[in-house]
Amino acid sequence: MTTPAFPSRLPQVGTTIFTVMSALAHEHQAVNLGQGFPDFGCDARLVDAVTHAMQAGHNQYPPMAGIPALRQAVASKIEALHARQYDANTEITITAGATQAILTAILACVHPGDEVIVLEPCYDSYVPNIELAGGVVVRVALTPGSFRPDFDRIAAAITPRTRLLIINSPHNPSATIWTAEDMRRLEELLAPTKVLLISDEVYEHMVFDGAEHQSAARFAGLAERAFIVSSFGKTFHVTGWKVGTVAAPAAMTAEFRKVHQFNVFTVNTPMQHGLAEYLQDPAPYLQLPAFYQAKRDLFRAGLEGSRLKLLPSTGSYFQCVDISAVSDLSEADFCQWLTREIGVAAIPLSAFYGDGFDQRVVRFCFAKRDDTLRAAIERLRRL
Fold first, then answer.
1. Same domain, yes or no, for 29 and 57?
2. Are residues 362 and 254 in the same domain?
3. Which of 5, 61, 198, 258 has its Cα between 20 and 30 A from that of 172?
């Protein structure tokens, strides 16, 4: 039997760096600080809420956009945190994780030949999503070292063909956050344009040292053109559940849902009911900054005095380090060596750039149990 050959829709795409490094970590029994997922469980109350939903018979298709109780809980949460009102019926959609949300938003508004600006380093799903929609990727680098947005470069990249800009704060992989001033400058920059915005805010509750998350929802000129993406998986330590949300103006949501209904239709029912119940208590997400800041501080304190240079970590659950004093290897080769020889897995930042830009920086994930972090610290201090 001969399988017919066909041209690839994504000819440049192979296995993701996260899959490669996790497999290597497993092979060498390394401490996996590469892929961004917790190695600890979620709140038992959340599991109980989902279990009760299953037992109550909530196991058939829910409404396409998500169950009303969960959409209302999301709208209420956004209003409480960011003082922006979204209509739960027409402006909030429950998605199968943030990755599906971003792909769906892109497919909803990007036509073949439209340009989409991404700010590198960027999460690895953005570019393939744009290519699947037939869009043209326009890469604008964040400032090397500080990873701050360069608004002059962003402005220069906008053309009459620009359909969409994607931003991400707190930022994966650099662990930086956008300030209110950054958001206002973006608001001013986009005001005279028709450019739409995807604001990837999946790490919204992981902002440290007393800073506030600056959601696009807080800025009228951004909210009116933005798909704002969030993730229950990241917030409640259940990445495998794959449940996210999108908030957007009604006209944008209508187009979003046209695509959503045909690529997933809807999202698993008992998880939605469980999350709607769990969200009635805001304490779990309000306590999250302190929870992850303690893990960040534990990890950073353990590496103080080592030859790894710690970069600032102001948001997300990542810590980047400069490896220049440790090795002459490239970032990718260093991460392979570190996993095999030292027993700790990390991710090279070069994997987040289209051209593989190497600035001698790698990323660790500290969303791990304290004993996991201490085991990694002990090994890393040998460098």
1. no
2. no
3. 258
CA 319, CA 321: separation in Å to the nearest integer?
A: 7
Q: Give the C-alpha distances (Å, rounded to integers) separating 29 from 22, 272, 302.
A: 10, 36, 21
Q: Using one digit for the tens of pLDDT, what is the confidence trace for 46-73?
A: 999 999 999 999 999 999 999 999 999 9
- Same domain, yes or no: 168 and 299: no
Q: Which pLDDT does position 156 carry in this prediction?
A: 98
Q: What is the pLDDT of residue 324?
A: 97
Q: Which of 238, 257, 284 is the last residue of a domain?
A: 284
Rounded to 5°, the CA angle 79-80-81 comes to 95
**DSSP state string for 9-41:** SSTT--S-HHHHHHHHHHHTT-EE-SSS--SS-
Range of the domain at 365: 17-37+287-380
Instruction: Give mean pLDDT, residues 134-152.
Output: 97
3-class state of residue 284 by DSSP: helix
Residue at 240 is within a domain: yes
Indicate the number of domains in the chain: 2
Burial 34-50 (b: 16+ CB within 10 A, else e): bbbbbeeebeeebeebb
Give the model's pLDDT for residue 197.
Answer: 98
Mapping DSSP onto H, E and C, the string for 159-174 reads CCCEEEEEEECCCCCC
What pLDDT is stored for residue 19 in this prediction?
Answer: 84
Q: Of 84, 49, 6, 54, whose CA–CA distance to 274 is shortest?
A: 49
Average pLDDT, the chain: 96
Nearest to 66 by CA among 235, 233, 260: 260
The pLDDT, as a whole number, for residue 178 is 98
Give the burial class of 347: count Cβ atoms within 10 A of its Cβ; 0-12 exposed, 13-18 middle, 19 or more buried: buried
Q: Tell whether 6 is covered by a domain.
A: no
